[in-house]
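Exercise 7. Predict the joint structure of the components listed below.
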Amino acid sequence: MNRKNGLRDVGTFLFFAGPSLVAFFLVVLIPFLFGLYLTFTNWSVQAGSGKFVGLSNYIKVFHDNAYWTQLWFTLRYVFYTVILANVGGFFLGLVLSGKIRGQSFIRGGFFIPNLIGGLVLGYLWQILFSRVLPYLGNLYGWELFQSSWLTQTDRAFWALVIVNAWQLMGYLMVIYIAGFTSIPTDVLEAADIDGAGGFAKIARIMLPLSIRAIVVCLFISISRSFLTYDLNLALTNGGPFGSTEMATYYIVQKAFLSNDYGVGQAEAIVLFVIVATITLTQSITLKKMEVEA
Amino acid sequence: MKVFKTAIDSIKFFILFFLLVIFISPFLIIVTNTFKTTQQFVENPISWPTRFDFSNYIKAIDYMNFTTGFMNSLIITITAVFIIVLFSSMAAYLFARFKWRINTTIFLAMIASMNIPFQVIMIPLVSIYGKLGLLDSRLTLLFMYLGFGTPFAIFIFHGFIKGIPVSLEEAATIDGCSRTRIFFQIVLPLLKPVLSTVVILDFLWIWNDYLLPSLVLLSPSLRTLPLSIYNFFSTYSVDYSPLMAGLVMTIIPVLVLYLFLQKYIIQGIMEGAIK
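Solution:
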C-alpha cells in the first residue's frame, strides 16, 4: 500500500512539475553553474573543452581597462537614468492619481513606450537624433541640436539616458499611482485641515508613505538600466568609436566576437555582483525608512 | 462654484493632453514621414505629407520579409506563452498543495534564480547548446523561453493557489476525482485573474525580445520581427522612409492589442511589479 502510494507520488511529481523542471534545470541552473566553471578555464567553442586556469580570467578582467571605462560609463548612465525616470514617473503619478477627466486615456498614453522593445525604440530615436533634431536645430538656430547628438560621445550619452528614461517613466508612473492610491484619504484630508500646502503634503506625507513604491521603482529602474542592450545596439551601436558601449554590449562583443568565453563570463559575473550589491543596498536602506499610515 | 470647478478640470485635462502629445511626438513624427519619400524626408522632416502614399509600407514588407518575421514572432510568442502558462501552473499547483521537501527546495531555488540576469546565463547557454548542435531551431528557443519564464510564472501562480481554500479539492478527492482532474477542472479555471497577468507580461517580453533569439536563431527563414528589423536597418541604413514604415508596422500589432486590453495590461504590469 505504502509503496503504491509512493509510486503514485512520483508519478504526480513528474507529471505536474516535470516539464517546467527539466527546462529550468537545462536552461537556467546548469548553464549558471557551467558559467561559473567557465570563468576558471580557457574554454573555446572550437576546442569544446578547456584547461583549468585558476583565477587568471578574473585577473584579466581586473586589468582590462576598457572593461572598467565601459563600466564607469554604464554606472553614470544608470545614475542619471534612474533619477530622471523616477522624478518623472513620480510627478506623472502624482498628477494622474487624483480624479481627472480622461484619466485612464492619459495614463495609457504615457505608458505606450513600454509596449515596444528597446530595439525598435532605439531605431526610432536614432532617426530623430540624426535627422529630425539637426534639421530643427539649423532651422531655428538652436546650437544644441545643429549636429547629430549620436556623433559626439557626451551627447550620445545623454541620448541614451533620455530615451531610456522616457521609456521607463510611464512604467514607474503606474507603480507610483498604485502606491499613492493606497495612501488613506483621511491622512491627506487631515493635512488639508491642518493647512498643509501642496509641497508640504508631498514631502511630509506622500513621500514617506510611498517608500514601498519607491523601493520597487528604484529596484526596477536600476536593474533594467544596468542590463540595457537593445537600446544601446540600435541607438548608438556603441559609437562613436566604441565610446558608448555599455556593460551587456561589451560582454556580448567580448564573448561572441573575440571568442573569449572565459573572460567574457567572468565580466558578466562581476557585473552581476555589482548590480546585486547596489539593488540590495538600496532596498535595505530605504525599507528602514518605511512608515505606517 | 461648480462651473468654476469644471473649467479647472478642463484646463487640467488640456495641459496634460498637451504634455502627452509632446511625450509621444516621436511616434507622430515618424508616422507622418512614412508617407513621404526618403528625399522629401531628408529635405524637410517636419512637413506634412502631400498625400497618403503607402508605397514605403509595401517596400518595407518586401525588404524586411515582414510576413515571415511576423508569422515567426506570432508562432514563437503564442506557443511559448502557452507552454509557460500550462506547465508553470501545473508545477505551482504541486508546490502549493504537496509540501514535500523536494518541492520546497526546488521552489526556493527558482525564486532565487529570478534575480540572475540573462547576461550571466547567455554565454554558457550558447556554449552548451552550440556544442550540442541544438542552436538555430525554434524548438530550442521555445524550450529556453519555458526555462527562463517558468520561475516567475510559478511564483505568481503559487501565491494565488495558496489563497484558494483546499476544501473544494478535498471534497472532489472524496468523490474519487484524480489529482489530474482536480487540477484541470477545479484549480485551473480559478486561476483566471492571475492568468491574464502572466500572459500579458510574458507576451510583451517574448514578442519584443531581441538578444536571446539573436543568439539562437541563425537562419533568415526563422527570424522573428525584432531580428528582421535589425537586419533591415543594417542593410538599408539610409533609406529612411521604408525603414520608418518598417518600424511603424512592427509597433502597430502591439498597439492594436493595447487599444482593446489597456485595462488588463496596465493592471497586469502593476501586479507583476509589486510582487
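Discussion. Chain B touches chain A through 89 residues (CB under 8 Å).
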